[in-house]
Amino acid sequence: MTIANRLYAGFAFILLLLAITTIIGTYQVGEIDKTLVRVNEVGSEKQRFAINYRGSVHDRAIALRDLVLVEQTSERPPLRELIAKLKNDYAKSQQGMQQIISDEQLVNSEEKSLLAAIAQIREQGLESAAEVESLLQSDQRQQAQDYVIRELGPIYAEWLNRINDFIDYQEASISKGTQGVMDRSENFATLMWWITAFAIIAGGLVAWRIVVRLTHKIGGEPEEAAEVLQKIADGDLTVETRSKYKGSMMDDVNTMVRRLQGLLKEVNESTNTLVDASTELSETADNNQKLVIEQQEQTTQGATAIHQMSQTVREVAQHTEEAAQLADDTDKETVNGSREVEATVRSIEELAKQVESASAVIGELSDNTAEINKVLEVIEGIADQTNLLALNAAIEAARAGEHGRGFSVVADEVRALANRTQDSTRSIQSLIETMRGSATNAVDVMEQGRQKATESVEQARRAGESLQSVNTSVAKMSDMNAQIATAAEEQTAVAEEINQNFTSITEAAEQAAAGSEQISEASRELRELAKRLNKGMKRFKIS
Question: Do 480 and 470 contact (CB within 8 A), yes or no?
C-alpha cells in the first residue's frame, strides 16, 4: 500500500469514528429530546389538566356546600354561576385531555384506567350535584344538606382521590422520565467519553503507525532526506547518511551514492587516461609530422641526386664517344673515365644509402602508424567504456528522478563527447590506413630504387674494370666504349625511372604530411574533448 493510501485510510478511519460518534450522539440526543418532550410537554400537560380537574371538583364541592347552607334564595344565583363556570372549566380541561389521549403513543393502559375511573366518578358527581339542585328547587334545603353530607361529600372526595391518583401517577411518571433522561444523559456522556478515548487512542495508533511506516520507508526525517538529496543534486557525493532501516529510501540513497562514487571514479580514471592518451597521441602525431617532413626533404634530396646521376651518366656517354674518336688520348681519357666512374660509384652508393635511409624512415613511419593505430584502438575502447559508463550514469540519474536531472545532462554530454571521440578515432584510423598504404608503396618503390642503384654501382664498377682493361688493351677500347655507351643508356633509363619513382614518393610524402596534419588536428581536438570531460567530472565531489 502506498503512503498516500495509508494516509487516506488513516484519515478515513478517523472520519469513520467521527461519523459513528456523531450518529450515536444524534440518536441519543434525539431519544433524550423525545423523553423530555414526553415528560415536559405531554406529562406536564396531563398533570396540568388533572390539576385543573382537581381545582374544579374541589371548588364545586365547596360551592355546592355553600349553596345548601345559605338561607336566602337571592344568595344562590352567584353560587350557581360559579358552579357552572367550574363545570365549564372542567369540560375544557377534559377536552384538552381527550386530545392528548386520542394519540395512542401518548397514553398507556394505566393512564387509561385512571382516566376511566375519573370519568366514572365524574358521572356520579354530576348526578349528585343535579340531585342537590333538584332538592333546592323543591325547597327541601334540609334534605339537600343531608344529601350533601351523606352522598355528595363522599362522591366528591372519591373524585378528588382519583384525580390525585392520576396527578401522583403523572408526577411519578415525570420523575421517572426525568431520571431516565438523567440516566440516559449520564450513559451517553460515559459512552461519548469511551468513544472519544477510543477515537483518540485509535487516531494516535493510526498516526503512530503512519509515522513509523514513513520513517521506515524514508529511513529518517524528511528534512534530513531532503538535505541529503539536495547535496547529491549539487554534486556532493561524499555525503553519508546513517539509516537503521534496511531497504529504506535513505539506505537506497547510500547504495546509489556508493555506486555513483564507483562509477564516477571509473569515469574520472577513464577521463584521465583519455587525456594522457590524447596528449601522447598529439605528441606522436607531431613527431610523425616532423618525420614525414624530413622524409619529404630526403625524398627531394634523393630526386636531386638521381637527376645529378642522370646528368653524370650522360657525361659518361659523351666521354665514351670522345674516347672512341680520340684513341690517341686513350690513356688520359681512360684515367678521366676511371675517375668519373669512381665518382659515379660514390654518387650511386650515396644515392643507395639515401634511398635505403628513406626506406627506413618510411618503414619507421609505417611502424609509427601501427603504434598510432594501437593508441587509437585504446582511445576507441576508452570511448566505448566512457559511453557505457555515461549510459549507466544516465540510468542511475533516471532512477533518481527529478534530483538526478543535472547529472543526466552531464551524462548525455559525456556520451556525446564519447561519440565524437569515436567518430574522430575512426576518421584518424582511416587516414592512418591510407598513410600506411602510401608508406608501403613508398617502401616498395624505394626498394626498387635501391636495387637499381645497386645495379648501377655494379655497372659502374664494371665500367671501371673496363677502363682498367683499356689501360692494358687499347685494342679492346672500342668494344668497351660500346659497352659503356650501352650501360650509360641503360643507366639513363634507370635514372629516369628512379626519378619518376621519387616523384611518386614525393607526392605520397605530401599526402602523408597532409594526413599527419589531420591526425595532429584530430588529436588536439580529442585532447580538448578529454579536458572538457575532465572539467565536467570535477563538478562531482567523490572523496
Answer: yes
Q: Where are the domains of the chain?
A: 3-218, 253-537
As a three-state string, the secondary structure of 45-77 is HHHHHHHHHHHHHHHHHHHHHHHHHCCCHHHHH
Radius of gyration of the chain (CA): 68
CB atoms within 10 A of CB 439: 27
What are the tens digits of pLDDT across the range 95-153?
A: 989 988 888 888 898 999 999 999 999 999 999 999 999 999 888 989 999 999 999 99
Sign of the dihedral through C-alpha 455, 458, 462, 468 = positive
* Euclidean distance between CA atoms 32 and 107, whole angstroms: 18
Residues 527, 275 contacting (CB under 8 angstroms) = yes
Distance CA 8, CA 73 (A): 92
360-374: pLDDT as tens digits: 866 776 677 677 778
Place of cell 617502401: 443
In the chain, the percentage of residues whose pLDDT exceeds 90 is 17
Return the residue matching grid coordinates 354530576.
Answer: 126
Cα(260)–Cα(262) distance, integer angstroms: 5
Assigned C-alpha cell, 465: 674494370
> Whole-angstrom Cα distance, residue 271 to residue 534?
6
Number of other CB atoms surrounding residue 64 within 10 Å = 27
| Residues composing the chain | 543
Q: What is the 3-state secondary structure (H, E, C) of 101-168?
A: HCCHHHCCHHHHHHHHHHHHHHHHHHHHHHHHHHHHHCCCHHHHHHHHHHHHHHHHHHHHHHHHHHHH
Q: Are 506 and 303 in contact (CB under 8 A)?
A: yes
CA gap 522, 514 in Å, rounded:
12
Contact 264, 537 (CB under 8 A): yes
Q: Which residues contact 225 (CB under 8 A, 6 or more apart)?
A: 218, 219, 241, 249, 250, 253
User: CA 333, CA 343: separation in Å to the nearest integer?
Assistant: 15
The CATH class given to the 253-537 domain equals mainly alpha
